[in-house]
Amino acid sequence: MKFRNFITANLAIKLASVLLAVIVWTMVQGEITTTRVFHKVPYDLEIAPSMVIEKRDKSLRITLTGPQDVMRDITAKSIQVVHSLRSIETPGAVQFTLSDDDFSVPARTQVLEVQPKGIKVVLDRLLEKELPVKVQFIGKPEKGYQARDFVVNPTVMRVIGPQQKLETLSYIETQPILLTGRTRSFVQTVALKPLLRDNRESQYVDVYVKVEAELVKKTLEKIPVALLQQPGVGTSVEFEDTSIQVTLEGSEDLVEKIRDTDLKAYVDITDLKPGKYQLPVHIIPVQGLQILGFSPQAVEVEILRKLESVS
What is the pTM of this model? Predict the structure, then answer.
């Protein structure tokens, strides 16, 4: 009971004392000045529309001072730094020092120090130029397949970038297109590699890539040459050569299966009179296989005489 009486006696006065103590403590805390160093503080540069920044320091180290209760809640994002270079329209290096007007800091705080003190940037003029597009690929298709060809649309793009860089370029590259694991042809919209550091707006092209089964070659050494003549007519002939050598290209499974007897070659002796002739060799194509070449491409045929019609 005595303890309860002690608590309740003069309660209003005691509460007022506690409140006053809190106010005094808060005021004291507010009056304590502290200093903090903020690393990697970003800053913005305002430049003329005709110019572009080629090189610059990425960030600043800023020392800030202010009341302790304010400083404890400040982060690097609380500090805004903007410097204007709009009046400069000549390419080259520019060095400047930040002024108080360039800073926007929380109330009741002050900038004590900035590093680096002198900031150096390199400016260049913006230039537009039409450049052919060069497609970049990385990786390889699935085993047994290959990228046979590609088509880019458009083939030429008008790009914008620093004058010194653009004047040295003869083409503009795309971002890499991944081929790894591909087994089918595909179309991909891909961005051009940016020429500006701030990458203001990406530009895109469409690329069609033709992916097919990997082709292998095979040479058939002795392909028999047949005679093509009018049905029902016999002809006595002599060949200088009666076989040819043929080189084929196609998918591995088709090429492995093909044999000399699967390929048909012929010369046309229809309506020819007796005599000696150099006649071109014709080959009947096989679906899925391409004839790369054959030798000889013509054979000598001697027609001795026409035989009686064969019934």
Answer: 0.58
